[in-house]
Hints:
By secondary structure, the protein is α/β, with parallel strands linked by helices. It contains eleven helices and 14 strands. A hairpin with a 2-residue loop joins β13 and β14 (256-259).
Amino acid sequence: MKILFNCVKYNQPYQKHYTSPYFGSNSRIYKSHTGKEMGTLTFPFRDDLDWKKLTEFELNHFKSHENVNIIQFASSDGSEAYSTIISLIESGNKNVEKFFPIKAYDIDKEIVRAANSGMINIHPENMKYIEPHCKNFSKYFIPSSEKLEIQNDFFDLIKVPYKTYRVCDELRKRVKFNHADMYDVMFQIEDKSNTILMCRNVLGYFSERQVKNTIEIISRKLKKGSLFVIGKFDRDMTLVEIYLKNNNFKEVLKNVYIKI
């Protein structure tokens, strides 16, 4: 996805131009807007979030809410959604169902198709991130004799071994994967101070102007008490921390911000 902004204020029109996606949809190869090929990877429980602390905070912070709206941009193969679901289930809290279903969006039709297949490819090296969060990995992911084929898969390009797993129904029923542009979804958000908006390792591919405009829009859409979650790559590559501070967000955990 290539976004061309001309908006400075929230209510002004914005322009967008679709090309082949070049960011956010992890585990795929893309051509960037400069023509350069690049690949990205994702995996469950990516370690730029403290998943246990985040889950504890969410459960406490939203304990008085009847429902919580989790929205996820650049949802990719489902790794992040499954991490969120497993973290909540494994907490043992009886009220976790109010967080589901997660609404997950990606601009890449191919990766949305893969996520909706009910299977996922996992590199054995990434098991070290997953196992500490799963009391029983096989409860959620069952080895499959089928192979999940993904066009322009980065795993295939770099020729690393991976295993295909079937995702259990307990995870699949708690997330809805949809093909959509994040800005179309963003403008439709109707927040009641009960939203967790996950936009992780996406903004790092934007220009500073795009990042600044995006944070301004999100600040207007999210009400006091809602959460906005980013990734390490976003912080390393942009001034997103400054934009968040200037738009009434306060960091409460690593890469997790609350609207104040």
